[in-house]
Amino acid sequence: MLKNTLEKPVFFLESVRVVVRCRPFSKKEELVSCENILDIDDKLGQITIRNPKAPPDEPLKVFTFDAVYGWTCTQRDVYDDAVRPLVDSVLYGFNGTIFAYGQTGTGKTHTMEGASSDPEKRGVIPNSFQHIFTQISRTQNQKYLVRSSYLEIYQEEIRDLLCKDNNKKLELKESPDFGVYVKDLSSVVTKNAQEIDIHCKMCLSNIFRCLYFTTCTLLPSTSLV
Ligand SMILES: Nc1ncnc2c1ncn2[C@@H]1O[C@H](COP(=O)(O)OP(=O)(O)OP(=O)(O)O)[C@@H](O)[C@H]1O
C-alpha cells in the first residue's frame, strides 16, 4: 500500500483571520526623524496607537487581531505562522485565499512577493509555490493538478494578467456549483514553482497595481491505494 505523506493540517477555528504586519521605518522616514507611535504586543495580538497630538489624558487606541507581526519579523516568520497552515489546508482540499490590504507603501509587495533572488527575502507568493510543490512531490498516493491564474483588481476593474490583451475587463460571476468566479479568466497548468515564477514575471511588467491576489486551484484526482 502506498503511503500518504500529507499530514492532516492544523485548522484554524476561524474561517477568516486578520493579521497585521508593521514594517520598519524607511531610510527617508528615519532621515526626517519620524516618531514611532505604535506599540506591538505579539503575544496578545494587539497594536496600541498613540496620537502624538492628543492631550496626555486621552486614552490610547488598542486594536486586537488574530496575529500581529512587528518590524523584526522575517518573511519566514510571517509565512510559517500566518500562511503555512492555510496552504496545508488547501493541499488537503479546502479553498483558501491570502489577501494583502493596506495603503500605499505599507509593505504589501514586500510581504507578498519579496525579493525572489534571496531565499530569506522571498515573500508569501514564492514561498507558497515552493511549499505546494514540495508537498506534492512528497505525496505518494494522491495526484494533483495545479492551475494558476493571475489577475489584477484595480479600481473595481478585473484584468487577466496572463492574457496578452489584458486591457479586456473581466466580469465577476457566481455559480451554484463553483461559487464566485471570474468569467473567462485564463489559467495555465503548472508543474513546478519555476513555471509559475516565469508566468508571474511575464505578468509583472504589465502591472500597475493597487491590489492583487493569485489563485491556485488544486484538484486531487485519482487516489491510488
Ligand atoms: N517588513 C519590511 N521590512 C523591511 N522593509 C520593508 C518591509 N515592508 C516593506 N518594506 C519596504 O518598504 C517599502 C514599501 O513597501 P512596498 O513596496 O511593499 O509597499 P506596498 O504596500 O506594496 O506599496 P504600493 O501599494 O504603493 O505598491 C519598500 O521599499 C519595501 O522594501
Automatic annotation (TrEMBL):
<protein>
    <recommendedName>
        <fullName>Kinesin motor domain-containing protein</fullName>
    </recommendedName>
</protein>
<dbReference type="GO" id="GO:0005524">
    <property type="term" value="F:ATP binding"/>
</dbReference>
<feature type="domain" description="Kinesin motor">
    <location>
        <begin position="15"/>
        <end position="225"/>
    </location>
</feature>
<dbReference type="GO" id="GO:0007018">
    <property type="term" value="P:microtubule-based movement"/>
</dbReference>
<keyword id="KW-0175">Coiled coil</keyword>
<keyword id="KW-0067">ATP-binding</keyword>
<dbReference type="GO" id="GO:0003777">
    <property type="term" value="F:microtubule motor activity"/>
</dbReference>
<keyword id="KW-0963">Cytoplasm</keyword>
<dbReference type="Pfam" id="PF00225">
    <property type="entry name" value="Kinesin"/>
</dbReference>
<dbReference type="InterPro" id="IPR036961">
    <property type="entry name" value="Kinesin_motor_dom_sf"/>
</dbReference>
<keyword id="KW-0206">Cytoskeleton</keyword>
<comment type="similarity">
    <text>Belongs to the TRAFAC class myosin-kinesin ATPase superfamily. Kinesin family.</text>
</comment>
<dbReference type="GO" id="GO:0008017">
    <property type="term" value="F:microtubule binding"/>
</dbReference>
<feature type="binding site">
    <location>
        <begin position="102"/>
        <end position="109"/>
    </location>
    <ligand>
        <name>ATP</name>
    </ligand>
</feature>
<dbReference type="GO" id="GO:0005874">
    <property type="term" value="C:microtubule"/>
</dbReference>
<dbReference type="InterPro" id="IPR027640">
    <property type="entry name" value="Kinesin-like_fam"/>
</dbReference>
<dbReference type="GO" id="GO:0000278">
    <property type="term" value="P:mitotic cell cycle"/>
</dbReference>
<keyword id="KW-0493">Microtubule</keyword>
<keyword id="KW-0547">Nucleotide-binding</keyword>
<dbReference type="InterPro" id="IPR027417">
    <property type="entry name" value="P-loop_NTPase"/>
</dbReference>
<keyword id="KW-0505">Motor protein</keyword>
<dbReference type="InterPro" id="IPR001752">
    <property type="entry name" value="Kinesin_motor_dom"/>
</dbReference>
